User: What shape does this take?
Amino acid sequence: MGGFFLYTFLEYLIRVTSRAIKRRGSAWWPTAKATVVSSSYDKASSCNLTEVVYTYRSNDEPYSGMDKKPFWFSSNAEIYIRDLPPGTDFTVRVKPNHSEISIVP
Assistant: This one.
């Protein structure tokens, strides 16, 4: 039991740290409006992983992206996904000169 908790905690910590590093590096990128295509919650994941697929436009060209976000509590993951049904608009940051790269702030 203790090993599973440690594995879950380490996976969660690595995913959260990775997201924070990516977000910090993109703080000054320009923003674009994105629209949710699909959102899901992987209940089989040990760290309550959500996945949001979205589309956006940059320089009048269409692009798509995917954001995976970990949650410690399953209830928080369920709320996050419930608040992002298909068709929901939100903001992403787009890497200058590389419009195919986007980050959910």
Summary: The two ends are 35 Å apart (CA to CA). The chain is about 30% helix and 40% strand. The chain has one domain: 2-103. Residues 2-103 form one domain.
